[in-house]
Amino acid sequence: MTGLVVLLQIGLSSTSFAASAPLVLRCEIKQGDETLIGDFARVTDPYSVEAIDINGKFRFKAVVIGDEQHIEQIKIYTYYREQHQVVLLHEARYMPPFEPNQSSFAALTGVNYLYSPALEQELQYGCALLEVQPAVQPAVQPEVQPEVHPQVPVVQPATHPEVRP
After folding, report:
1. Burial of 60 (0-12, 13-18, 19+ CB in 10 A)
2. Closest CA to 71 of 48, 99, 51
3. Is the dihedral of CA 144, 149, 151, 152 positive or negative?
4. Antiparallel, parallel or unpaired: β 85-94 and 58-66
5. 27 CB burial (10 A radius; 0-12, 13-18, 19+)
6. Which is nearest to 60 in space by CA: 49, 68, 72, 52?
7. What residues are paired with 20 via a beta bridge?
8. Where in the chain are the domains?
9. One pLDDT digit (tens) per residue for the chain, 165 residues
10. What are phi and psi of 48, to 5 degrees?
11. Residues 68, 76: contact at Cβ < 8 Å?
12. Nearest of 69, 127, 120 to residue 94 by alpha carbon
C-alpha cells in the first residue's frame, strides 16, 4: 500500500537570515498511510499560527518564534480529537542555539511517536531546521489585451419535442 505525501508551505518568508538563506522548520508527519511535509517559517506572534488537521484524528502545530535576525524558540504542539474537542497530547520546546542540519528529516527533534488514548491511533513526526533558497520569481509578462470582436448574435440550439416510444 503506497502512502499519500502532501507538501505544505506555511508562511514562508523571503527575508534573509543573517546574510544566508532563510531558515524554515521542516516537519515530516506520518499518520496511518499518509505522510505530510510542512515548512514552518518564523513568526513574531505565536498566536497567529493555526494547527493543521491530520486525518481528522490529530492536529499539529509548529511555532518558530523570532524575526529575520534570529530564532528565539521553537514550540511544537500535538493534539488529538476527542468527540467535539481537541486535547493537548504533547508539547515540546527547543531553545537556541540553532544550526541548520539536513542530515536527517528529524535532526532537531528526533522521531517522536505519539498515541491517542481514546482513538488508539499513532502519529509520528520529526523536524529539522533547514536553509531554503527563495523561489525565483518569473519574469513579468506584458499584459495581453483581449481582442474585441463585433457582437455576434448567439444562436440557440433547436429544441426537439421529446420522443416517446
Report:
1. buried
2. 99
3. negative
4. unpaired
5. buried
6. 52
7. 17
8. 4-131
9. 444 444 444 433 333 334 467 889 999 999 999 999 999 999 999 999 999 999 999 999 999 999 888 899 999 999 998 888 999 999 999 999 988 888 889 999 999 999 988 778 999 999 999 987 655 544 444 444 444 434 444 444 444 444 444
10. -85, -10
11. no
12. 127
8 Å CB contact between 115 and 121: yes
Closest CA to 31 of 112, 104, 130, 118: 112
Run of H or E including 113: strand 112-115
Q: What are phi and psi of 58, to 5 degrees?
A: -130, 165
Query: What cell was used for 114?
Result: 505519539
Task: Give the pairing type, strands 34-40 and 4-10.
Answer: parallel
Q: Which of 60, 59, 14 is nearest to 41 (CA)?
A: 14
Q: Which three cell numbers stand for residue 78?
A: 500535538
Report the predicted TM-score, pTM, of the whole model to 2 decimal places.
0.68
Nearest CA to 50 among 10, 9, 105? 10
Q: What type of residue is 54?
A: I
